[in-house]
């Protein structure tokens, strides 16, 4: 087999989640089914002598239905979705267990990193709900299960990675605190000057509009008197409650996903 064809075959095998030899077996089986269908078609219409417009249209519709069923097997989709939701829920449970310990020990950078990871789960589920094409949604779920990056086609038909920024911006339209909390959390996920919080206040290092956004939503959802002038320690006291807020939203979105809903469903 030429090198280019071999590379193409390996890519197809990976896309079908099988081995190279498994792909060969599948293609042989598909070829056999096509040949049987062709023989049946020729036998029927050879004896009948002609094909009416209605018969040709019925045959075309049947082929389209078969193709749709092959591309989006509801059984496979249900199993994959259950796997995906279970993974999200297990991650969330670990976040709450870890948050209890981090809060008890005063590990502020760890606590905010946990918050950021829970937020990552939420924005991904929101993105899935925004994907109304069920075939495309299924492919994203399957990619997540395989540990692959999410990719979507551009207007020109090329595949591009789904950027975190795109998912965060989408979630921002539903929860006005998402972008600010996500950015603040990234400062603790990656090594930065925020980890020197005992000597320098990372909350006061944020732009004033982001401090106002975070403080406003803390007051709105959790009471208290958080303000743009609050210290990092004052803001940090809200972290466990803010995790509960994100997790509550995440559970609602997951349930909507299980029900095969869309983002704009009531």
Describe the structure.
- Helix content is 71%, strand content 2%.
- The protein has helices spanning 3-15, 20-48, 53-71, 74-105, 108-130, 134-146, 164-172, 178-189, 208-222, 232-236, 239-258, and strands at residues 151-153, 159-161.
- It has a two-stranded antiparallel ribbon.
- α4 runs antiparallel to α5, α5 packs across α7 (164-172) and α5 (108-130) runs parallel beside α11.
- Residues 69-76 have low confidence and may be disordered.
Helix content, binned percent:
over 70%
As for the number of domains, it is 2
Give the overall form.
elongated
Annotation field: number of helices: 11
Radius of gyration: 26 Å
Main sheet properties: 2 strands, antiparallel
SS class: mainly alpha
Order of helices and strands: HHHHHHEEHHHHH
Residue ranges: pLDDT <50 for 5 or more in a row?
Answer: 69-76
Instruction: Please count the beta strands (DSSP E, at least 2 residues each).
Output: 2
The largest beta-sheet arranges its strands as: 1-2
Share in β-strands = under 5%
Question: Averaged pLDDT, please?
Answer: 83
List the helices and strands and how they pair.
Elements: H1 3-15, H2 20-48, H3 53-71, H4 74-105, H5 108-130, H6 134-146, E1 151-153, E2 159-161, H7 164-172, H8 178-189, H9 208-222, H10 232-236, H11 239-258
Antiparallel strand pairs: 1-2
């Amino acid at each position: 087999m030429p090198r280019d064809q071999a590379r193409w075959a390996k890519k197809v095998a990976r896309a079908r989640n099988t081995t190279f030899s498994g792909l060969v077996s599948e293609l042989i089986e598909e070829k056999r089914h096509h040949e049987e269908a062709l023989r049946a078609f020729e036998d029927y219409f050879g004896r009948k002598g002609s094909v009416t417009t209605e018969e040709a249209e019925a045959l075309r519709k049947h082929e389209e239905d078969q193709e749709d069923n092959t591309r989006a097997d509801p059984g496979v989709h249900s199993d994959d979705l259950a796997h995906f939701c279970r993974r999200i829920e297990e991650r969330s449970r670990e976040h709450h267990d870890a948050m209890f310990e981090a809060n008890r020990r005063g590990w502020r950078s760890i606590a905010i990193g946990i918050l950021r990871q829970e937020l990552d789960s939420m924005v991904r589920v929101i993105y899935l709900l925004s994907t109304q094409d069920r075939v495309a949604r299924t492919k994203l779920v399957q990619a997540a299960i395989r540990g692959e990056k999410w990719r979507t086609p551009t207007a020109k038909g090329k595949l591009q990675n789904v950027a975190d920024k795109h998912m965060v911006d989408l979630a921002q339209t539903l929860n006005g605190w998402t972008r600010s909390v996500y950015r603040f959390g990234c400062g603790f996920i990656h090594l930065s000057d925020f980890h020197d919080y005992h000597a320098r206040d990372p909350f006061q290092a944020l732009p004033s509009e982001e401090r106002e956004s975070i403080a406003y939503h803390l007051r709105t959802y959790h009471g208290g008197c958080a303000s743009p002038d609050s210290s990092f320690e004052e803001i940090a006291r809200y972290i466990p409650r803010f995790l509960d807020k994100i997790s509550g939203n995440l559970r609602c979105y997951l349930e909507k996903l299980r029900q095969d809903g869309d983002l704009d469903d009531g």
